[in-house]
Amino acid sequence: MVEKISSHASISARAVCLCRALESTQPSGSRQLLDVFAKYFLTEIERLTLRSVANWGTRWIEIASQGLYQEVIRRHATTDSWLEEALGSGIQNLIILGAGYDSRGWRFARPGLRTIELDQAATQTHKRQCLKRFVTKFPEAQVELSPVDFRFSSWPDVLPSFTQSSVVIWEGVTMYLSREEVIATAHTLAGKLGRGTEVIVDVLLPNAPMRGTSSPTRLGLGVLGEKLKWFLPLHEAPSFFEPLGFKVSQLLELGDQPTGPSHIGLIRLSRL
Ligand SMILES: C[S@@+](CC[C@H](N)C(=O)[O-])C[C@H]1O[C@@H](n2cnc3c(N)ncnc32)[C@H](O)[C@@H]1O
Q1: Which atom of ligand 1 is nearest to the CA of 12?
Q2: Ligand 1 probe mutation, 37, 68, 125, 173, most atoms within 8 A of CB
Q3: Which residues contact 182 (CB under 8 A, 6 or more apart)?
Q4: Ligand 1 centroid vs 33 CA: distance in angstroms?
Q5: Number of domains within the chain
Q6: Which amino acid residue places its CA nearest to atom 23 of ligand 1?
């Protein structure tokens, strides 16, 4: 059965943006990430709430989320550092699949860098409204937002082929796709990217507390139309991605919490 195209902006994208906005309020010595634009994608009430909880620190949310908060922040911060390395070697295109409220197109803006964000139309419509409202807060940047749905076969038409050096970020998305949809998306990417192109992708791990059938996170996401569908043991990443045309160059399990097993595995791939 083909599921409906979402008519509302992604709640999971909002939730991770809220995490980044919270982390960015923390003192420079203790935060892992500074995303100065995250707050512009929040509602007025969310911004007010953020201001009042900013000085509680983040331990409460790490515990309440069974470590997921920490992993979401670490995923973004590690991806930033890998992206910075690639920028150092002069990449010209940044392609972000399921970009949500990602602000890298502005945080890493520089002459000659083109950022292409792909996501469902409703999320992009809301993002555009926020960008328009806070236009003076964002620097000049070449960022293009193209609506797609990875579940449908027409999405590859939106993405040009990239022969120039590029980096693809596919963060926080594979778990919302079926195994077949992940394979089809990776297959499309392989056909569009030049040899050596780096793809940074994450997967939900089999023992992730949020995979439990009674997990409030999983139940809540399901109710909101963002069902968790796919997971991959990290050690299976090479045998999963290599037949699709990608070599694994780095694997990272993101949790180190006493609160339980890791939720997320981060994978650095390179197009063969
Ligand atoms: C958890 S959010 C991650 C957002 C962003 N990558 C980040 O890390 O802040 C998941 C994103 O995947 C997008 N997404 C999920 N399923 C999708 C699909 N079938 N087609 C396009 N985008 C999808 C959602 O709209 C949402 O923006």
Answers
A1: 1
A2: 173
A3: 174, 230
A4: 20
A5: 1
A6: 98
Instruction: Give the residue numbers spanning the domain of 263.
Output: 11-271
Whether residue 51 lies inside any domain: the answer is yes
pLDDT digits (tens, 9 = 90+) for 101-133: 999 999 999 999 999 999 999 999 999 999 999
* 29 Cα to the center of ligand 1, angstroms: 30
Domain containing 65 — which CATH number? 3.40.50.150
- First-to-last alpha carbon distance for the chain, in angstroms, is 34
Range with the lowest mean pLDDT among 4-13, 42-51, 132-141? 4-13
Task: Provide the token pair at 241.
Answer: 């991605």
Q: Is residue 198 part of a domain?
A: yes
Q: For ligand 1, which residues put their CB under 6 angstroms from it?
A: 10, 12-13, 16-17, 98-102, 119-120, 123, 148-151, 171-173, 176
Q: Is 4 part of a structural domain of the chain?
A: no
Question: Separation of 4 CA from ligand 1 center, angstroms?
Answer: 15
In terms of pTM, does the model score above 0.70? Answer: yes
Assess if residue 58 is contained within a domain. Answer: yes
- CA 258 to chain centroid, in Å, comes to 25
pLDDT digits (tens, 9 = 90+) for 44-66: 999 999 999 999 999 999 999 98
What is the full DSSP assignment across 80-122? Answer: HHHHHHHHHTT--EEEEET-TT--HHHHT--TT-EEEEEE-HH
